[in-house]
Amino acid sequence: MSDDHILETRALTKEFKGFVAVSKVDLKVKRGSIHALIGPNGAGKTTCFNLLTKFLTPTSGQILFDGHDITAETPVHIARRGVIRSFQISSVFPHLTVLENVRVALQRQMESSFQFWRSESTLKRLNPLAIELLREVDLEKYADLTAVELSYGRKRALEIATTLAMAPKLMLLDEPTQGMGLEDVDRIRQLIKKVAASRTVLMVEHNMSVVSSIADTITVLQRGATLAEGPYEVVSKNPAVIEAYMGSANTELQGAH
């Protein structure tokens, strides 16, 4: 595994009772880059994410992270190595404040990681770091609001803050702009670009305007296999990719800039 690649898969494969969901995928993610996984519905993108975080066990193939073979490791061990995932559906605690949500994520850094009965004064020492993370995602002024009061786009920003609190070496973002209006999409696009300045991001994303504007490398999956890979300018002109994105999706692919 090359030192400039933080993640690599070798012939990664997942079968479900004879159906091949992911087929011999070779993925290489460079350190400090934004790498996007795209493809039509059913292409195997989310299954890939589930394999990388070991929510699913590969049928065959290898996963290497930061120089270590993690194929047989548990989800907990992989998270401890710094592979942290956010999900398609916002997963914050709705009735905790914005600050408390980030503080819960920071508790994993403490020896008493899941001792939620710890005294308020003990937890308050995490506040400066929590505020710093909220500042990074432009949510500092919403610190005292409950999460349920946030707009959908800001809830996703909060989720990114809680992901950052887990000290990720590799952030896996699953459809970060799904279901958003244009204003929220642009906010999250800028946010991903900002937090990726000192981290590595692997994202599944349908919105081609987002992918084309921030991704350094794009891997296109179709029917579980790699169809194409490269920068947007190259991938978007690939005849096989254009065919895979027929109709309205094709128009979107060509008109993303």
Outline of this structure?
The chain has 257 residues and is of the alpha/beta class. The chain is built from eleven helices and ten strands. It has a six-stranded mixed beta sheet with strand order 6-7-8-3-9-10, with helices on both faces. Strands 2-1-4-5 form a four-stranded antiparallel beta sheet, with helices on one face.
Strand segment count: 10
Counted up, domains total 2
Give the name of the CATH architecture of the largest domain. 3-Layer(aba) Sandwich
What is the beta-strand fraction?
15-25%
**How would you write the strand order of the largest sheet?**
6-7-8-3-9-10
Order of helices and strands: EEEHEEHEHHHHEHEHEEHHH
Radius of gyration, in Å, reads 19 Å
Unreliable stretches, pLDDT < 50, 5 or more residues? Answer: 247-251
Structural class, by secondary structure, is alpha/beta
CATH topology of the largest domain: Rossmann fold
Global shape:
globular
The pLDDT mean sits at: 88
The main pleated sheet reads as: 6 strands, mixed
Question: Could you characterize what this model shows?
Answer:
With 257 residues, this protein is an alpha/beta fold. The protein has 2 domains: 172 residues, Rossmann fold (3-Layer(aba) Sandwich); 75 residues, no CATH class. Helices cover 35% and strands 25% of the residues. The chain is built from 11 helices and 10 strands. A 6-stranded mixed sheet has the order 6-7-8-3-9-10, sandwiched between helices. The protein has a 4-stranded antiparallel sheet with strand order 2-1-4-5, covered by helices on one side. Strand 4 and strand 5 form a beta hairpin. Helix 5 crosses helix 6. The protein is globular. The two termini are 34 Å apart. About 2% of the residues have low confidence.
